[in-house]
Design goal:
Length: about 240
Amino acid sequence: MSVVSIRDNAFFERLAPAQRILVAGAGGGFDVYAGLPIALALIGSGKQVTLANLTFTCLDATNTPMLAPHLGGVVPEVEGEDVYFPERNLSTWLRGRGLPEVVYAFEKVGVRPLRAAYSLLVERLGIDAIVLVDGGTDILMFGDEAGLGTPQEDMTSLAAVAGLDVPIRLVASIGFGIDAYHGVCHAHVLENIAALDRAGAYLGAFSVSRSSPEGAAFLDAVAKGQDATRDVRAS
């Protein structure tokens, strides 16, 4: 059976002119993992891809090298915060795959300081496209829905990136149905997608098969990330 990459859709066509792309978790936690299939597909097409995440880890409790206020560069050797550190777990996985291993971590701050941290990273790396990734759907909430989920961090990241002078800025909502756990009504999600489509802002949908290279790698990364977190909590 032939395996088709996830790259054959309008979303990746929009990213075609870009060469240096930042794929960033918008809502914190493991959102950066949700962006991994996109990042790997872009790397497979010859793009330079950097991973980043709004972190829930207290960077002050680690020896993470800080590039600027509220911006750190996480590598496998970073010490501290052993209970919960998705960025370090992902960095370790990336190294094992021979991929660029630095995962940049944005601290949870307001829109203006977060935008300043993004701006510095964009300038430092010459970023010409940003993909904000939500591991869920609450990033698509307009704010007047009955169940909003946990959109605060997503909205902060959206507002921060909206004010950047970067040619291409996209949002990827990965994992339809996940946020039912947080009370999100997915009928509202579909209504909001329809509204985005009417405004010409919807680039379609795609699935990530476990048989695709990106899907298989994603499952491996998530399993190892879960194991690393579980092992520490159990010790």
